[in-house]
Amino acid sequence: MSKELSYTIEEVSQLLKVSKLTLYDLVKKGELPAFRVGRQMRIDAKDLDIYINSQKVNQNTKFYASEQENHRNHTKDPYNIVISGQDLVLDILGKYIEKSSPYKPLRSFTGSLNSLISMYNGECDIVSLHLFDGETRDYNLPYIKKILVGHEYILLNLLSRKAGFYVRKGNPLKLTAWSDLNRKDIKMVNREKGSGARVLLDEQLRINNISSREIKGYDHEESSHLSVASAVSSGLADVGVGIEKAAKIVGVDFVPLVTERYDLVILKTPQSEQLIGAVKDILSSKQFQAEIHSLGDYDISQTGKIIYETY
To answer: Which regions form coiled coils (predicted)?
Structure first.
């Protein structure tokens, strides 16, 4: 491979047939070198070749394998952290963390539920969540208690924001409530399984006794708020579920239905004590809050509040 060639995390994920979070974990541990260009992580082709070759099994090279393991332990960087979630506020948080602490944030743009499972598996350090529970009408904590079993953690509020329907300009089909999804004259676009928007939709369908099998377009999945809003804007769908900010960016109308609490969860370990302190300081700082407030469409009245903490 050419020395000038490099790949994005997404491209390497497709080449190796592994998840992006697995690759972020390898980068975090120092096993796979990477560099950043703006927000994007890239991996040199030569470094990818070296990594692949180091993983090839050879029955007669036990000493080499031992040396590789020693090299991995030596190069592991505890200050590489993965922040998972899609909201642009997480990019701002990463910027503040990098400026005010020794940590080097990497970004994973993965949905809430899948990110939480990855945290359980040790692949994420900060996970953002907006998971609605229809039984308790609460956000995030019911899911955390079920998934992060055996772990100690802290749950901090990042912000609150509106979620609802993306509809075409003027809302020609007059879609105003979850029950409207049961109409036969509409086609929706959905989010991928494991995303907070998908969980919100499925919980609301259950509460309103609507069968997903009866909804035209339920199986049409997109992987971000922006792509859902764009599908509505282009006429591929009549309605989609997402957050207000994306509607304004794409240029579709927005029908607010809920105010969702968008939180951060961090595992409590001796190694993460400094990280938790840095995040708490950033969230409570007037400068950070003012920058988030200036973006519009975000409620920062609880930003930095400890929602829940295990001891």
So the answer is: none
For residue 63, what pLDDT band results from cuts at 50, 70 and 90? very low
DSSP line for 118-186: HHHTT--SEEEE--EETTTTEESHHHHHHHSTT--EEEEEEEEEEEEEEE-TT-TT---SGGGGG-TT-
Where are the chain's structural domains? 6-75, 131-311
pLDDT tens-digit readout, 1-29: 444 688 888 888 877 877 777 787 788 77
Q: Which long-range contacts (C-beta less than 8 Å, at least 24 apart) are formed by 269-276?
A: 269/152, 271/78, 272/125, 274/101, 274/102, 275/81, 275/101, 275/103, 275/125, 275/126, 276/154
Report the pLDDT value the prediction gives residue 179, as an integer from 0 to 100.
96
Parallel/antiparallel/unpaired status of strands 306-309 and 153-167:
antiparallel
Question: Residue 127 contacts by C-beta under 8 Å, 6 or more apart in sequence?
Answer: 84, 85, 112, 115, 116, 118, 119, 264, 265, 266
CATH class given for the domain over 131-311:
alpha beta
- Percent of the residues in the chain that have a pLDDT greater than 90, as a whole number: 71
The pLDDT, as a whole number, for residue 69 is 45
In angstroms, rounded to a whole number, what is the distance separating the alpha carbons of residues 90 and 111? 13
Q: Which pLDDT score, from 0 to 100, does residue 101 have?
A: 95
**C-alpha to C-alpha distance for 94 and 112, rounded to whole angstroms:** 17
Report which of 187, 183, 191 is spatially closest to residue 238, judged by C-alpha positions. 187
pTM for the full predicted model: 0.78
